[in-house]
Amino acid sequence: MSCSVLVTGGAGFIGSHLISALAVRFPHWRIINVDNLQYCSSLKNLRSVEGSSTYTFIPGDVCDPFFIKHLFATEKIDVVFHCAAETHVENSFLCPSRFMRVNADGTGVLIRAAFEARVQRFIYVSTDEVYGDSLEQPFDELSPKRPTNPYSASKAAAENIVMSYWKKHKFPVLITRSSNVYGPRQHHEKVIPRFLSLIQRDQKCTIQGSGLQSRHFLYVSDVTDAFLTLLEKGILGEIYNIGSSFEIPIVQLARELVKMKVENVSEEALDDWMEFVEDRPVTELRYPMISDKLHTLGWRQKVTWKEGIRRTIQWYEENPDYWPLISENRDESPA
């Protein structure tokens, strides 16, 4: 079967890995990448498909209804993976209206055009942050949404828009909520590449608040595997958690990365590599999730933390100048 897939935000971290995975799994499918190339996106991320006759990059903004309407009118699109989003939690406190415009309004523009074009699958990539945090009870897909920052509020609003098309029109949608994703090519506004970049330059890892907040980390290929599993087996109108079994406090993450990167560093010297800075307005301590629903479709987390972080560190060591240097006055985001 031949198929045309639209990936929004395909020059970003997760979107580019998804495009590469689609090209390997479905070599005869056409892949269209729409991205407006913000600071955390780069066409360098798509080197694996450059020159392929089945891959097309179209610069554009999902918030532009005229562009999006024209796109669906001129391209026969069967499947949409909507990855495009503003994702930096810190920035969402500084400019919440931008996050709502891109993440919620942009999703509304895109799904309306997809609905009118009678797309066969619309997969919305959301986040575990829509649940808010929980110290003990893990979230399943029926847990209430309690977003605690403008970023997660905008993603929750986008989910509501997507689900409304299922409820009113039975438009074939799926929603994913994943743990924190890491791996090669991630922009260093995110915590793992940020720490690696700072350590590489003999600078301290900046840690917000106490550093006791913990995160579940999932290697990027496991996430793209989950997306492809849902494309083929996902039940329409359903939400799926994509959770990781690996959880680590941010302060422990910094200590582990220093030990991996700095030769012969003593336990006592580890504290010298950390600088505690002012916390963000709202800090979520944990986002535990249950992924049993996805497991019933056959998906399992394959890449261990040990293997995933080894691959990630190796990539950043081999590509030290891939992203421009981070500014020194931006604090680490644990999300």
TrEMBL record:
Where would I find the NAD-dependent epimerase/dehydratase domain in this sequence? 5-243
Enzyme class, UniProt record, top EC level: lyase
Q: Which Pfam families match?
A: Epimerase
Mind listing the GO biological process terms from this record? Answer: nucleotide-sugar metabolic process
Reaction equations catalysed: dTDP-alpha-D-glucose = dTDP-4-dehydro-6-deoxy-alpha-D-glucose + H2O
Assigned EC number: 4.2.1.46
Q: Enumerate the InterPro entries for this protein.
A: dTDP_Gluc_deHydtase, Epimerase_deHydtase, NAD(P)-bd_dom_sf
Q: Which GO terms describe its molecular function?
A: dTDP-glucose 4,6-dehydratase activity
Belongs to which family? Belongs to the NAD(P)-dependent epimerase/dehydratase family. dTDP-glucose dehydratase subfamily.
Instruction: Indicate what this protein is called per its UniProt record.
Output: dTDP-D-glucose 4,6-dehydratase
What is the scientific name of the source organism?
A: Labeo rohita (Indian major carp)
Print the organism lineage. Answer: Eukaryota, Metazoa, Chordata, Craniata, Vertebrata
